[in-house]
Amino acid sequence: MAREVDEHDTPAEVDAAFRTQRRVSAAYFTLFLVAVTGVPALTLALDWWSAGRLIGGMSPGFVMAAFGLYLFFFLIGLAAATLATAVEARMLGGPAEEPGPPGDGPP
């Protein structure tokens, strides 16, 4: 007995989705790298980044390192995951509409 294979995605579609996902991940990595290297760069470039005082006597650089980067990591992770899921859902998958049983459509 032959087994029926139900494939919806062609190799070209899978390759295009892979290339798109790779570009998206490279863009998010670049954004991540700029943000992570930007905190120490600001410390070297701006005096007020280290000498200024905010709530509780904390410097802006400390606040960014202690709290801001964690918020940034969460947001960039959420954005990357959301975009990756949307790209995959849009580029891969089966036909737009699966046929239903006969007589199940509008009258």
Automatic annotation (TrEMBL):
Lineage per the UniProt record: Bacteria, Bacillati, Actinomycetota, Actinomycetes, Micromonosporales
Protein name: DUF485 domain-containing protein
Originating organism: Natronosporangium hydrolyticum
Key words, A-Z: Membrane, Transmembrane, Transmembrane helix
TM ranges: 26-49, 61-84
